[in-house]
Design a protein that fits this description.
disordered N terminus; 266 residues; 4 helices
């Protein structure tokens, strides 16, 4: 851990603050981890020849347990020369902005502002997938989050290059999450339509049985047998079948009347 030039009192205050925090968190049984990162150019975590600035968080944590990190701003004693003091704005950026040290978002998300070098300032981040305050940062499992600072000694609000380029001042937090599994495909339902008069096949585990449903047979009673097939034979049969019973009475009455007239004329 690298400390900025400061008095013994300031260093002791910082050490005491985080010692108390570590003691409180240690008394509560938890698998969550706590990180402390001094955001200054002399911190070896920002060396370009290692990967210490890529940090895995929430790995092997229990449910509803989330890692935390404290980003500590540089602090100095009164009387320190301005050219020796470092001031930063820490941004949450996209991967492309992280790789190029160039903030292209017109409204970037600001994580911390270290602009009071004589005051102890630190910003705590909890890597949970929800936020209790509107507009807060949410850390979803399986995603990476990129923090950079492009400030320079004479331009706090610079958004291109800065110490991100000259001192590699950027960090990646990789939020651990279970492997994503694709959902099973939806079952396919095949509809089968069977015609009434077509053969139907019934399959079993050992044999295949084919059954055929014959069309319904309508039996009609003909009052007269025709010698040959007439094209309207079926139609006539239906007429006889439907209207034969109703026409039989009047015909018999006419026959009886005709016979009676013949006998009367004799």
């Amino acid at each position: 851990m690298v400390w900025q030039p400061s008095s013994v009192l300031v260093n002791g205050l910082i050490l005491l603050t985080f010692s108390l925090h570590s003691f409180v968190t240690a008394t509560n049984p938890s698998s969550a981890k706590f990180y402390t990162i001094h955001w200054n150019s002399s911190n070896p975590i920002f060396r370009i020849d290692n990967t210490d600035n890529v940090i895995d968080v929430n790995r092997y944590n229990l449910k509803f347990e989330y890692d935390q990190v404290n980003l500590i701003c540089p602090v100095y004693v009164p009387g320190t020369r301005d050219e020796e003091m470092e001031k930063y704005i820490i941004y949450n950026v996209s991967k492309d902005e992280y790789d190029t040290c160039r903030i292209t978002n017109p409204n970037p998300r600001i994580i911390a502002v270290c602009d009071k070098p004589y005051k102890l300032m630190y910003f705590t981040i909890t890597f949970r997938p929800f936020t209790p305050q509107p507009g807060g940062l949410e850390f979803l499992p399986g995603h990476d989050y990129y923090f950079i600072s492009t400030s320079t000694s004479d331009d706090l609000h610079r958004r291109i290059g800065g110490r991100c380029t000259t001192h590699n001042m950027k960090i990646v937090f990789k939020v651990w999450g279970p492997a994503q599994t694709s959902p099973p495909p939806a079952p396919v339902t095949v509809s089968r339509w069977w015609p009434v008069t077509s053969p139907r096949t019934t399959s079993t585990s050992s044999t295949t049985t084919t059954t055929s449903t014959p069309p319904p047979v309508t039996t009609t009673k003909k009052s007269k047998t025709y010698g040959g097939k007439h094209p309207n034979e079926v139609g006539k049969s239906e007429e006889l079948t439907l209207g034969g019973g109703a026409a039989a009475g009047p015909v018999q009455v006419l026959v009886v009347c005709a016979v009676a007239v013949l006998f009367a004329m004799r």
